[in-house]
Amino acid sequence: MDSLINDPFKVAFDSLEEFADVISEVLQCPVTIEDVNHRLLAYSTHDERTDPARISTIIGRRVPEKVINQLWKEGTIPELLRTQQPIRVKNIDEIGLGNRVAISIWKQDVVLGFIWALEIDKTLSEKEFILLKKAADAVKNKLLQLQTRKNNKEERFQEFFWKLLTGHMNIKEEIIEHFHSLQITPSPTFAILVFKFQGNITNQEEQQISYLLKTNQRLKIMLYTIDCDQLIVLVSAMNIENPIQELSHFVEAFRWKLKDRFGIQEITPVFSSIYEDYQKIRKAYNETLTVLSIKEKFPQETKHIYHYQKLGMFQLLHFLLEKRREEDYVNQSLHFLRVYDQKHNSNLVETLEAYLNNDNNINDTAKELNIHANTLNYRLKRIAEIGDINLKDPNQKMMLFLDLKIEKFQSR
Amino acid sequence: MDSLINDPFKVAFDSLEEFADVISEVLQCPVTIEDVNHRLLAYSTHDERTDPARISTIIGRRVPEKVINQLWKEGTIPELLRTQQPIRVKNIDEIGLGNRVAISIWKQDVVLGFIWALEIDKTLSEKEFILLKKAADAVKNKLLQLQTRKNNKEERFQEFFWKLLTGHMNIKEEIIEHFHSLQITPSPTFAILVFKFQGNITNQEEQQISYLLKTNQRLKIMLYTIDCDQLIVLVSAMNIENPIQELSHFVEAFRWKLKDRFGIQEITPVFSSIYEDYQKIRKAYNETLTVLSIKEKFPQETKHIYHYQKLGMFQLLHFLLEKRREEDYVNQSLHFLRVYDQKHNSNLVETLEAYLNNDNNINDTAKELNIHANTLNYRLKRIAEIGDINLKDPNQKMMLFLDLKIEKFQSR
DNA sequence: GAACCTTTTGTGAAAATCACCAAAAGGTTC
DNA sequence: GAACCTTTTGGTGATTTTCACAAAAGGTTC
User: Fold this and answer.
1) Where does A319-411 sit in CATH, by number?
2) Domain boundaries B2-150, CATH class
3) Which of A320 and B152 is assigned the larger pLDDT?
4) Is A166-311 a domain of CATH 1.50.10?
């Protein structure tokens, strides 16, 4: 009996729900157990008192994203990930969060989940804090079991996803069936999303990415995997009015969170077009790879481009370069300008490119080149003469623009 | 002796030169014999009196182009090609042409050449006109022989040219050697020039073309041939400051002459880039064919384009279409605009295309579409919204322009 | 037909462009 | 170094373009 008082959790229990009730009884307050991604694993039922945040969590079987965001902002979650001690959280009315105490569940140096105890009418004492610590210790093996089972499932996910990405599964029915067997509902429309990291993704980063993806509630993520320095995600694009904008927001938010919460910087996010046909996953993936390779060659020009469709003519560069090569074409106008530049130490080509980049805007271009607007005008006139170019002809300008970019593409 | 007075030209003569002297002696004035293309065949030497036009003709071994042009303008040559009678030409001081009489040399209903008799101090009498007619009759067989010999040579030209055009002769030394064996000096730079006629080129038209090409002195024509409705010309681009401009002028002048002199209309002239390497004749020829096929599909847009290099992005269309096809790409922006157009009976796509065609010029576009400039502005705003397009981004605009043209290209 | 939305047109002020001119700076040629 | 050419910069004013706003017109929905 003494040992039970010292550690009331040294009992056998079948399910996590049962265990949540045990904790609840010992501490005399409602209890919730979450995994490390804030998915609800179990909650006590003996105590009816609760707060809106807990209700939402139970209803949605996960902690609402705004609550997670808030807990990150004011430091609770970072603290939980740092220490094994219980943490007290003051109520935050805006998100319906009452006073509560939380503790993280550790297995060696990895956090497996959290236990939350609501302080509805009472405040937990120092002694009860120690009990909570013991509870966290007692539950860790149970969580680990769940984890392992999930890992197996995870592996099956991985295999399936890679088959899709590489186009090794291209019978429609087979794909759908596989989705269902993995208990995923394939959304009617999807996109592939890739985040390219600075270097290979470490295990720790993997955890953090996984955490962010699992806690995100903005977009439904069907599958994801990690490949060297890339995080590849299959995301649903359904039920959204403007999917592209939504995806843009998502990647921005994701990048921001990685930086803000985990200090991971210099992420390059990209995403494919939106498709309905799951046989096109490979194509979508290739699109993202194209975007990445273009962004690598034209970091400045494509700074604000994440989306394949927004690449504009950049998506053609690779292709056009090949054509140019095979027919060893020379753009005469550019050639003349180059010769002139060489001979007179001028910058007509550079000027032309800046002008074209700036959508024919004299002022912007002059500013970018740090020259007087009239100087620019003069140069443009010379360019037209020397290169025999009609700068009012969109056709010619387009060709020049393309040829300039093709050459850059080639030389990089 | 009587017969000699009746027809003093019924004598055997070895060369045309000899015969020219005979005529000169009979008529007592300087005589020149030309072929139908105004190339000098022979001239009398017994009489020293002459005029500047004749001197130029003898020096250059052909009638100067400005003289020919003048003789066309005031009707002499058309008349010579019509009648077998001698024609009197009054002196034309601007081109150094003194008074003279001309007659055409006929073989059945084909003109083989001309005889010119200068009226330096005397005026030819009616009797001498009859003599001239007899001279023309006497010389025709000699000319025919030359013609035939030339035809054989012509055939060798043809064969050689076609080998070059089709890339069946691609050893540099061999090509040069062939040129020399045909007594052509290959110019260091060249271009291929093609005129496409309305229908297949008739024999008569062939004569007329040949005439125009041979009398042209602006550009040196190395080889030419006729293929169904195409006249294909290998032209020198040397010794000209601005060859492309020169070529443009030439084709314009050629077209104008065909129309003005022979009533041949609706000629489409095109020409290739300028090359130095004669192994590239085939490539140059293919360029012209590309220009022709594009001009057929986009007659309006390419109205003023004759030159491959001036095709701008049109030269890529064929190529891009293939790419688009193989990856069944859909431009989302255009798709949204099309859907909107369909649903609301609007013309956003058409508006966008006009705007892009007009180099982003609001006024010009509005005029073309017969709408108010503000209406256009409003539509553009809507286009940006609906198609999720940034109309300040040259990249996106370029892609839209290309995709629009690709679609047009495809549907034609 | 009222209420509502989209589209077109008109107006005027602000901004940008363009065609000039002129001065100055930099380079090349003889 | 003088003469010459090209390039840069500045300024001016006419012209065009852009933009915001308002009114009118046309359609759709209830």
Assistant:
1) 1.10.10.2840
2) alpha beta
3) A320
4) no
> Is B58 part of the contact surface with chain A (CB cutoff 8 Å)?
no
Nearest by CB: B394 against A273, A316, A356 = A356
Q: What does the alpha-carbon distance between residue A264 and residue B217 come to, in Å, rounded to a whole number?
A: 73
Q: Do A402 and B398 touch (CB under 8 A)?
A: yes
Predicted confidence (pLDDT) per residue in A14-57, tens digit: 788 888 988 998 888 899 999 888 888 888 887 778 888 898 88
Classify domain A2-149 by CATH number.
3.30.450.40
Q: What's the Cα-to-Cα distance from A224 to each of A63, A155, A162, A193, A274, rounded to whole Å?
A: 21, 11, 10, 9, 17
**Measuring from the CA of residue A385 to each C1', which nucleotide is nearest?**
D6
Give the neighbor-by-neighbor strand order of the sheet with A87-89.
A40-43, A31-35, A110-118, A100-107, A87-89
Give me the architecture of the B166-312 domain, per CATH: 2-Layer Sandwich (3.30)
d(CA B123, CA A90): 126
Interface test with B, best of A189, A241, A303, A310 (most B CBs within 10 A): A310
Inter-chain CB proximity A312 and B283 less than 8 Å = no
pLDDT mean across residues, chain B: 87
The answer to whether residue B2 scores a pLDDT higher than 70 is no
- Cβ distance of B395 and A360 shorter than 8 Å: no
Please tell me the distance from the alpha carbon of residue B41 to that of residue B15, in angstroms, as a whole number.
10
Given CB atoms, is B335 within the 8 Å cutoff of chain A? no
The whole-angstrom separation of Cα B177 and Cα B175 is 5
Q: Domain map of chain B by residue range?
A: 2-150, 166-312, 319-411
Does the CB of B275 have a partner CB in chain A at under 8 Å?
no
Rounded Cα distance, B208 and B255, in Å: 12
Please state, in angstroms and rounded to a whole number, the distance separating the CA atoms of residues B35 and A205.
89
Q: What are phi and psi of B307, to 5 degrees?
A: -105, 135
Cβ–Cβ < 8 Å for B45, B39: no
Instruction: Give SS3 for A270.
Output: strand
Residue B278 has what pLDDT?
92
B273 touches chain A (CB under 8 A): yes
Q: CA B364, C1' D14: Å apart?
A: 20
Residues 346-385 of B with CB under 7 A from strand C: 346, 371-372, 374-375, 377-379, 382
